[in-house]
Amino acid sequence: MAIVISGSSGFVGQALIQQLSCKAKWQEQGLRTLCRQLPDYPLDHVQYAVISGSGETWHTDQLETHIQVGDCIVHLAGRAHQGSSCPEEEAQLQLAAHLDLTQALAQAAANRKAKRFIYISSAKVFAECSGDKVFDAKTAPQPEDPYARAKWQTEQWLQSFCPQHHLELIILRPGLVYDRHAKGNIARLQSLIRTGLPLPLGGLSNQRNMISLANFCHLIEHCVDCPQPEENTCIAADSEALSSSQFLSLLAKAEGRSLKLFTLPDWLLNMLRRLPGFEARWLKLSSNFALNNQPCNIALGWVAPFTPEQSLLEHSFAPSQLAKQASKQTGEKP
After folding, report:
1. Number of folded domains in the chain?
2. Which of 89, 98, 153, 295 is deepest in the core (most CB within 10 A)?
3. pLDDT computed for residue 213 by the predictor
4. Residue 218 belongs to domain spanning
5. What pLDDT, on the 0 to 100 scale, is given for residue 196?
6. Angstrom distance (rounded) from CA 102 to CA 113
7. Is 26:45 a contact under the CB 8 Å cutoff?
8. Helix, strand, or coil (residue 330)
């Protein structure tokens, strides 16, 4: 069984390619990626298929030429969650990047008689926060933004399409995927930590289930050839939940920085909540996002190999490592 990966230039895709390309098993069985353009530092043992198309469009007939009987498709490609001044336009862009792209790829996989389709969805399909609840795979999704709604619609389409075309399906719903070298909110938190200033984020006792990049890549590889689970929608998370304060402490430790946290008094917090945009940002830091992934782990036969601390301190992935790995293979300097 060869692996065909879409979205190999993204945050998760780069790390996954690095992990798989180093292993003799996948060097022998085959590792192919579907991409818009060749990477600056292509790796040995990886076949890069450049797929043309306009915007977020891929054409099924193009995709078919790079898929073979019995392949496993790992579908990571999509559009990142982002705000927009025009919600209707953003909704259309998200659907094109997720539903339309997935339909083309799944149809190509079915036409070529691929064996398995692994779709990377998101735990955001449940909601933006869990409140006093704990989400599990049977919780009814209530997506709140265009990104999550597009992911949920894509899941539903795959659940209908794949059984009709004898294509095994595994849907992974990861919590926040984190790493020392992640972008977005994690990078912003790291910038705050590097200032050395005391941060008003002490005393947060919320619980958030996330998954490290190292654990997530391990899980995806496990899903390539594990027995097909009876319940094919699985939550992806580390073995332990963290409060935001605990996560910040781990980030600081990974950066080799000391962290000083203090708790905002209620009267000041209430005043700050009147500021535009503050409430939304504060909720992201202070709210619960609790996930129960134990039934999914049992169904898949998987246990997260790394603790959050091990993931950040010992198994972090830097994009520059990909260039270094490629330069060792080619003899060139990155």
Report:
1. 1
2. 98
3. 95
4. 3-182+210-239+291-330
5. 86
6. 16
7. yes
8. helix
The verdict on residue 250 lying in a domain is no
- CA of 72: how far to CAs of 30, 213, 220, 232, 267, in Å? 10, 21, 11, 15, 55
Q: Which of 97, 91, 16 is nearest to 105 (CA)?
A: 97
In a domain, 302, yes or no: yes
From CA 134, how far away is CA 128, in angstroms rounded? Answer: 13
Q: pLDDT-derived band of residue 85, with 50, 70 and 90 as boundaries?
A: low
Contact indicator for 146, 91 with CB cutoff of 8 Å: yes
**What CA–CA distance (Å, rounded) separates 158 from 2?**
21
In a domain, 271, yes or no: no
CA dihedral 273, 149, 138, 105 (to 10 degrees): -140
Q: How many CB atoms lie within 10 A of CB 114?
A: 25
Report the distance separating Cα 69 and Cα 106, nearest Å. Answer: 13
Residue 148 lies in a domain: yes
Instruction: Give pLDDT, residue 60.
Output: 74
324: Cα separation from own chain's centroid: 23
Tell me how far CA of residue 272 lies from CA of 50, 207, 264, in angstroms: 49, 23, 10
Instruction: Please choose, from the candidates 144, 130, 148, the residue with its C-alpha nearest in 3D space to the C-alpha of residue 209.
Output: 130
What CATH number does the domain containing 105 carry? 3.40.50.720
Strand, helix or coil at 242? strand
The tens digit of pLDDT for each residue in 191-205 reads 888 988 888 888 788
Q: Provide the whole-model pTM.
A: 0.89
- The Cβ of residue 228 has, within 10 Å, a number of other Cβ atoms equal to 13
Q: Give the model confidence (pLDDT) of 5-25 as tens digits.
A: 998 888 899 899 999 988 999
Question: If you ran DSSP here, which 8-state letter would residue 261 be given?
Answer: B
